[in-house]
Amino acid sequence: MPVTWIDQEELKLWGDHTASSALRTQAFSFGSSNTENDSNGGTGSAGANIRGLGNLSTLTLINGRRSGGNSAVGFQHGGFADLTLIPTAAIKEIEVATDGSSVAYGSDAVAGTVNLLLHDNFEGNRMDASFSNTSDGDASEKTFSFLSGQALSESTHLALLGSWYQRNSIEARDREISKDADRRSQGGQNQGSPTYPGRIQVDGQSMC
Question: Which family, according to the similarity comment (predicted)?
Answer without folding.
Answer: Belongs to the TonB-dependent receptor family.
